[in-house]
């Protein structure tokens, strides 16, 4: 399983976890131009949440959320503003969350060992 596949499986695990915890998924993998993508956009009560998912199979390089650096946060903010303009949701409260998933490889898949939702991560 390569990094891209690991990320996609992690996003599915995160989407399921968020849905089970009251979030309503609005979009997945929202892209616009050169900024990249937002993994998950969801509603949590009155908030629109822009959610970055980080999946790791080892803590060798630190916690998954540590990889959401200044540049990534800046890109996510820009993408969020584009999304809000496109959807006409400019008056809604927004929040940036991170879902950290630590998992172990199991055959062709992964088995989550820990899922950590960081509300208002930045």
What CATH first level would be assigned? Alpha Beta
CATH topology: Trna Endonuclease, Chain: A, domain 1
Order of helices and strands: HEEEHEE
The number of E-state strands comes to 5
| Average of the residue pLDDT scores | 92
Major β-sheet strand ordering: 1-2-3-4-5
What does this structure look like?
The protein has one domain: 3-Layer(aba) Sandwich (Trna Endonuclease, Chain: A, domain 1), CATH 3.40.1350.10. It has 2 helices and 5 strands. It has a 5-stranded mixed β-sheet with strand order 1-2-3-4-5, with helices on both faces. It starts with a helix and ends with a strand. It is an alpha+beta fold and 122 residues long. The mean pLDDT is 92. The protein is globular.
